[in-house]
């Protein structure tokens, strides 16, 4: 479709793959589209933990991840760019993984504070890309590359959420 930096809104509105891959359009945000996508992910997380038991959250997350590999590959093909910053479905997967410690029962008195810690921790590791996240970001291409580095960043972020949750440092709000 295109190799330019900006994804036309009309393309996102007309193409279900691009609509989903751009996080319902949040990836079109002109500054820090990954952060914008993560903000949407926080909202999806809040809805999921409100209405789903932990087992259903985990099943939904697995489906989001598995489908994400396909979805991001299709978006990469349509856009002609290996890891376009507007593709933010990977943020949904990464934030979902980051929040697993809370879903399984840590921080029950402070879900909002835990969600904020998860947001900050996930964005931190997604942006700085410690090894091996940085290696995956550089060497794995296509939809797998889009998804993998964010999932790996989440593997760093989830223990931060867990440690903060069990430490008693979360305010009760």
List the helices and strands and how they pair.
Layout: H1 9-14, H2 16-21, H3 33-51, H4 54-79, H5 89-98, H6 100-103, H7 111-128, H8 133-139, H9 142-167
Structural features:
mainly alpha; globular; 173 residues
Structure explained in plain terms:
The protein has helices at residues 9-14, 16-21, 33-51, 54-79, 89-98, 100-103, 111-128, 133-139, 142-167. The protein is mainly α and 173 residues long. The protein has one domain (9-167). Helix 3 packs across helix 5. The longest helix is centred in the middle third of the chain and has 26 residues, at 54-79.
Distance between the termini: 45 Å
Helical amount among residues, as a percent range? over 70%
* Major sheet details: none
Radius of gyration: 16 Å
- Count of separate DSSP helical elements: 9
Structural class: mainly alpha
Mean of all residue-level pLDDT scores: 92
Percent of residues in beta strands: under 5%
- Uncertain segments are none
Brief account:
With 173 residues, the protein is mostly helical.
């Amino acid at each position: 479709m295109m190799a330019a930096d900006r994804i036309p809104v009309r393309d996102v509105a007309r193409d279900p793959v691009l609509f989903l891959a751009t996080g319902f359009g949040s990836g079109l945000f002109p500054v820090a589209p990954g952060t914008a996508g993560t903000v949407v992910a926080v909202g999806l997380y809040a809805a999921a933990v409100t209405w789903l038991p932990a087992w259903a959250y985990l099943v939904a997350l697995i489906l989001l991840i598995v489908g994400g590999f396909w979805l991001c590959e299709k978006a990469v093909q349509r856009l002609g760019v290996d890891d376009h910053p507007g593709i933010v479905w990977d943020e949904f997967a990464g934030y979902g993984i980051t929040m697993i410690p809370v879903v399984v029962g840590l921080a029950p008195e402070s879900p909002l504070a835990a969600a904020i810690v998860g947001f900050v921790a996930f964005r931190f590791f997604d942006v700085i890309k410690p090894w091996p996240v940085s290696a995956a970001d550089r060497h794995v291409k296509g939809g797998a590359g889009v998804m993998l580095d964010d999932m790996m960043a989440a593997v760093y972020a989830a223990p931060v959420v867990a440690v903060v949750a069990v430490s008693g440092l979360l305010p009760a709000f």
